[in-house]
Amino acid sequence: MSRIALVDDDRNILTSVSMTLEAEGFEVETYNDGQSALDAFNRRLPDMAVLDIKMPRMDGMDLLQRLRQKSSMPVIFLTSKDDEIDEVLGLRMGADDYVKKPFSQRLLVERIRALLRRQEALNADEAGEPETAQVLTRGELVMDPLRHSVSWKGLDVSLTVTEFLLLQALAQRPGFVKSRDQLMDVAYDDQVYVDDRTIDSHIKRLRKKMRSVDSEFSAIETLYGIGYRYNEE
Question: pTM of this prediction?
Answer without folding.
Answer: 0.64
